[in-house]
Amino acid sequence: MTSLRVGLVQTRTPATAAAGLTHVEPLIREAAAQGAQFIVTPEGSNLLEKNRGKLLSQLTLQEQDLVVQGGRALAKELGVTLLIGSALVLRQDGKAANRSFLISPDGEITATYDKLHMFDVDLPTGETARESEAYEPGDRAVTARAGVAKLGLTICYDMRFPAVYRALAVAGAEIITVPAAFTRPTGQAHWEILLRARAIETGSFVLAAAQGGFHEDGRGTYGHTLAVGPWGEILGQLDHDEPGVLVVDLDLTAVAKARTAIPALKTPAPSRRPRPWHDQIRPGLRGGP
């Protein structure tokens, strides 16, 4: 059996990077103390600030970000692989990015991923979000290794786009990470359902470290950090929105078993078939010719 102990950190990140590091560091240490070899933090682990002006005035290049650099030092000190689920940073061109950082046990950044899908919505509750006004989306999906496992990297709203998850699984990802700062209304309705669906569709482990509670900037996030197995089973969950740590053991052989039982990934995607199904849509009998 190829096993991996993982630690998922749930935070209530403050509105500055200095406070963000003070908040997340003891939780990372707690996960490592419980034997986690691979530790994941949520989206926006360095700071959360809804006011665009205040946000952009605080962002730095990744080389200066306190949580990115603090995470590198922690990974090296603790001898763990650390995924900073995302830090909000400046790109070299001056635009902002919502970026995951995979850090090896020697403290080196081995992979980064910029969130592909921007959360631009008007919710029935009256809440609005326009991530595209602050961040430049990424342009590629990313896989990387974390010890014995191959990862696929995603962030939050990406989970609503299953084609990304299929592509990562086809590329060999056994674990797909979904660090998030999910809103409370959408979290209550969709969080668990979507994460379990992405695991079932791809035969992958899905690890979703979450922000939780009411933050300094006034936002509310859902929490309920979740680990899902390749058969869609819940391996562990924090059933609350308080800061905390979830540690679970993954049997990586379960991935091959699930994909053998349901070989959906071997079926060609529609766009690769000789005549894509979407070019053959016709009205039904009731609709006439």
Structure description:
With about 290 residues, the protein is α/β, with parallel strands linked by helices. The protein has one domain (about 5-285): 4-Layer Sandwich (Nitrilase/N-carbamoyl-D-aminoacid amidohydrolase). It contains 6 helices and 16 strands. Strands 5-4-3-2-1-16 form a 6-stranded mixed sheet. Helix 1 runs parallel beside helix 3 (about 65-80). The protein is globular, with a radius of gyration of 19 Å. The N and C termini lie far apart (about 55 Å).
Summary of the model, kept short:
The chain is an alpha/beta fold and 289 residues long.
Helix content percent band: 25-40%
Q: How many domains, as an integer?
A: 1
Radius of gyration, rounded? 19 Å
- What is the C-level CATH assignment? Alpha Beta
CATH topology: Nitrilase/N-carbamoyl-D-aminoacid amidohydrolase
> Ranges with pLDDT <50 over ≥5 residues?
none
Biggest sheet features: 6 strands, mixed
Q: Which CATH architecture is right?
A: 4-Layer Sandwich
Number of helices: 6
Give the strand content.
Answer: 25-35%
Number of strands: 16
The separation of the N and C termini measures 56 Å
Assembly state (oligomeric): single chain
Helix/strand/pairing category:
alpha/beta
Widest sheet: strand ordering: 5-4-3-2-1-16
Give the mean pLDDT: 92
